[in-house]
Amino acid sequence: MPKFGKKSKERLNECHPDLQKLFNEVIKDTDCTILCGHRTEEEQDKAFKDKVSRLKWPESKHNTKPSMAIDVAPYPLDWQDTKKFYEFGKLVIKKAKELGINIRWGGDWDMDGDYKDQKFNDLPHFELVTKV
Ligand SMILES: [Zn+2]
After folding, report:
1. What's the helix, strand, coil split of the chain in %, to 5?
2. How many Å apart are CA 46 and CA 43, to the nearest integer?
3. How would DSSP label each residue in 67-85?
4. What is the 98 CA–ligand 1 centroid distance (Å)?
5. Which of 18, 55, 62, 106 has its CA 20 to 30 A from that of 48?
6. Is 1 part of a structural domain of the chain?
């Protein structure tokens, strides 16, 4: 059974308990690596500058404590293999549904199941949908 490495575990620990619960289940099925949990102001500024994020501090769901967002990629990591990212995203959504966790994926922001109506893809990004 795949297991998270030390860095992944540290990043996961910065996240909301629901995200921890979800990805502790996901890893049992498929190996993955946690790229980012919480982002500090400095890290968010950098992510914005590098166009990894469209948001400025403290607007990102990565900026809260615990973090309401997490970036996870299938392992071994291959950014060119988008097919693998889509398969992974679908698996995470399915798991979240089973666990009753409401989640939004950066591969389907409007959550309509259509992956082609996107202006901005953020395939490793998953965030908790909070009721307002
Ligand atoms: Zn993210």
Report:
1. 35, 15, 50
2. 5
3. BSEEEEEESS--TT-HHHH
4. 22
5. 18
6. no
Is residue 23 situated within a structural domain? yes
Ligand 1 centroid–CA 23 distance in Å is: 15
Mean pLDDT score, 11-17: 98
Question: Cα(50)–Cα(56) distance, rounded to whole angstroms?
Answer: 12
Give 62 Cα–ligand 1 centroid separation in angstroms. 6
The reply to whether 60 falls in a domain is: yes
Q: What DSSP character marks residue 66?
A: S
Residue 1, pLDDT score? 87
| Whole-model pTM over 0.90 | yes
Give the range of the structural domain holding residue 36, as residue numbers without chain letter: 6-128
For residue 67, the cross-strand partners are 15
In a domain, 69, yes or no: yes
Split into its structural domains, the chain has a count of 1
Q: Which residues lie at CB < 5 A from ion ligand 1? A: 69, 71, 125
Quote the CA–CA distance of 3 and 1 in Å, as a whole number: 7
Q: Give the CATH number for residue 106.
A: 3.30.1380.10
